Amino acid sequence: MGSPLVVFVRAKFLTAPCFSVCSTSFGNVIELVEMGRENHRIASGGAATRILLPAAWLLVLMTALLNGFRLSLHSDMLFQADLFRDLFDLGGAWSHWRFTPAPAYVPDTALNALAYLLLVHPGDRILLVTILQILILAGSAIFLARQIMPDVSKVGIASLLIVLSLTNLVAVDHGWFYHIHNNVHVPTTIFGLLCLGAFLRFIDRGGVVWLLALGLGVVVAVLSGSLFILAFVVPMSLVGLMTAALAGRDARTRNRVILATLMVLGAFAVAKGLEGYVTYNDPLLGRASISRVRMIASLNKFLDSFELLYRSADALVWIFLGSMAAALLYSAAALPGIVQFRRETGARTEGLSSLRIGMVECDGRLAIAWAFLLASGGVLVTGSIISGGYADEFGLRYLMLPGALVFLLSLIIHDRRCAGRQTRSRWSGYAAGLCLVGLGATGAAMATTRIMAPDFSFSHLRDYGVVPILGLQGDNRLYEWQIAACLDDLGGKHKLRTGISDYWHARGVQYQTRSIDRMIAVQPDLRPFFWMSTVGPLIRQQHYGTHINFVITARDSAAAGSIPFLADNIEAQLPSGYERHRCEQAAFDVFYYSGSELHDFMMKRRVPQTKLETGLWGESAVALVAADLPGIVGHVQGDARTVQGGDGQGGVLTFGPYANLSPGKYVACVDYQSSTGGSGGSGVGSWDFVGVVDGPQTFFQAPLKTGRQSACSGEVSVLKGAKNVEVRTFFNGLGDLSVSGIALKRIDSK
User: Fold this and answer.
1) Which element (helix H / strand E) includes 683?
2) Distance, CA of 426 to CA of 483 (rounded, Å)
3) Domain count, the chain
4) Shared-domain flag, residues 599 and 624
5) Tens-digit pLDDT profile for residues 383-440
6) What is the pLDDT of residues 459-485, one digit of tens each?
7) Which contiguous run of DSSP H or E holds residue 523?
8) pTM
9) Would I find Acyltransferase among this entry's keywords (predicted)?
């Protein structure tokens, strides 16, 4: 149990809610140790109790397997499969990939790398990673439980596993709280439990190893997702500072708390410093900063999550929510009864067995854990709304860590109350066994219902998955299977190479057909969509054998889904020379090119923008035609933007493309033609090469002279790299000016 300790603090902190938690009477610490040992002996005896813990582990595994029934092989879920296929099989580069703001490198991406080496089918890998994460989550919860209560009984551990099994069952049909990979709330919960356990272990017993383990956990977790900052770093820092302030005359505990808190903050700083070396392409680049509009949108999505929860709730969901509410109420009701008031004496002891706040004595481990629970829940909700973090109606999953702590702390309190009381402990074991049997029967019934469905087959589930999670928009069916069948038919007549489509169909279709080389996700304006994808096939065309020769589009908005990638709109942007094929199996059309018209169009008119946005390109220059650049004055004429003196006053003819440049040496060029309507051969305007380094910076500026056709800047050194880089042209209102294009050239080797 550790050395006994009394921590003296000022009475003015008596009202701090997080320290109103108490686990036992201070006057009976020695008795508690003996009761805990007796409880352990009781829990270890009896055939029924010995069977309970292995049976609970078996239930966790069974309910984890049931998550295979909700396997959905859509674009998001296939991201990891695409990543490691590119890295391991196609010779791709990590630096060419753009991840989400929450990449979940550990354990998610690491486990997916292992699964890719072990298994062939993407669905098998997803299920394996899901099961492994659930088992890791179970181990993390048990680790934290043992740090809070070293003598936790086998019944207590089994109860934790039974609650996890209930969560797994709820996850089978509901997407608001689930254990499917590629979602950072699961790694955040795992690292939150582990880091909180390491924090408590170091404060209680010291040890450089535990302090370093805490720091390493924070570094890895922050690199894996910014959600961990709100879920752990901020609340743990607040709790640590408060604990240090309340520690009174116990210098050893206070110093350990300060060291652990500084380690959390220092590890966070280290992680932010390493971020650019691990995640090469900023996933939030170009996204609007914090604003009132984003806050309101995030709040609305958070409220939508409750609407979705209510709409989709069934008996299992209400049991889960009722259990969580009961756990919270049970803990709150039990704690005041075991708080003991004592007058402050001059006695001075050391350790974390008790925490003194004025005249209130509490168990320090439970106090800190409860304080963290309250802080984490509040910071998560508030911070996610303010930062605009709620982007969909499944936002309740971000509260997975506080939810896990609600169950864990209530079960620990119950286990302590059962210590030394044989009858209560026995009935607690019976109740746990009854819950185990009930959940096992429920899981078996769920599996049987699905297997006995007339159209069910394991092979179909494994190969095609199920309909994606239902949201507020209803059935989000993507029809990848039907589109793939259409491509297989078309592939028998034509050579299909690289295709383009919207994000939600591109990767899913790619994995359902063998008639094509690959799919590339694009936006409705046909610019490549650089999100959870690689630019490798676009900037290393010869390496990948990229030749874009077909487009997949939806015939109506109902089939298109959330992205309006409609056939009529896309057709208006395509170059001539295509054959339009109708897919009878789904409301989609395929535009096929037998020549290189589409490939040339994409490489000249659409891909350069993406290359400049990423700051990654293999060739020495990237050029854009002026017709694809925005402007304020003038009009598009062919590939150029043109303005004449008679059109009105002068202004910005072209601006953009808001490129991102990695550190290096560059030259910017502009191709133009000009003539003057005035006298003396005066210029028609000016151009500049600008960007943002530490602030707005002008790299080069020069006039646009009459009669000139091209101009280039001198050598420009961008030592730190630059964002939002533009090559702008300005018309002064005199004469005529036509800009045909701009170019950025890199003149040093990368």
Assistant:
1) none
2) 59
3) 3
4) no
5) 989 887 777 777 888 899 999 999 999 999 999 888 777 788 888 889 999 999 999 9
6) 888 888 776 554 444 444 678 889 999
7) none
8) 0.84
9) no
